[in-house]
Amino acid sequence: MKTAVILPCYNEGSAIYDVVAAFRLNLPNADVYVFDNNSDDNTAEEAKRAGAVVKQVKQRGKGNVVRRMFADIDADVYLMADGDGTYDASYASELVSKLVDGDNDMVVGIRQPKQTELAYRRGHVLGNRVLTGIVRFIFGTGFTDMLSGYRAFSRRFVKTFPAFSSGFEIETELTIHALRLKLPCDEVKTPYFERGEGSSSKLSTYKDGFRILFFILFLFKEHKPLPFFGLVSASLAVLSVIFALPVIVQFIETGLVPRIPTVLLSTGIMITAILLFITGLILDSVSRGRGEFLQLQYLQYRPVVGDRTKS
Fold this sequence. Notes:
single chain; alpha/beta; Spore Coat Polysaccharide Biosynthesis Protein SpsA, Chain A; 2 domains; 7-stranded mixed β-sheet; 11 helices
């Protein structure tokens, strides 16, 4: 069973050496890869000095890096973490064991802050809870820490993951992919530490938070078009009835329809509502077909347990 530790990095020269060394210590049989996202510092040099295989990704954004990692690296088990030293490498073997022994396709590390607000800012905690709750409401049972970057994956998860996101939305996309295909997943509580000196967060609480929210809505439209367009259609239909009701009442009372613009507006809104509902029906069939294709692609890969037994 081949295990790969994959670390996306951008300007983590002060931390990456210790991160690579820690994962090499805790997973001695794993290959450690650092994907440098066009850093301006000595991230690549420090990663090489620690014994990692370094690859360059010029296109900025964590989603772009993860897409490249999943495409380039061939392994049975993938362990992904950030290169900033905030995740505890001593829990790597537990994540891998939970993946393999539990017949899972993804295991997520639930962050447990060790320096309270210094490690996990309140804005990030609140945003994570809100966004996780929205995903749970839309897609069903979700995860405790949807935005965690500490995860273990099976080969069949990685090789059938159609990454669309380019930035910090990638964790959301990984989560929704697992929920959409109803893949077996689990969670492990892991310590979460404050960044070391010289390392700074690249995540903007509000900017990236709104990007993640809009991306959730995008995936809602893509994966559940009938509920998405049906909700918009129903809202417009109610609005149309609100506009039309006074006109109808006036017509019943007087037999006249003097408010022609209101009638036209109400009619136009109702027609739009009907068209949106039909659009949702059509796209729902397309989405189901894409989901079935992904499921068939997923089934082409053997589970990790099968590979381990064979070896």
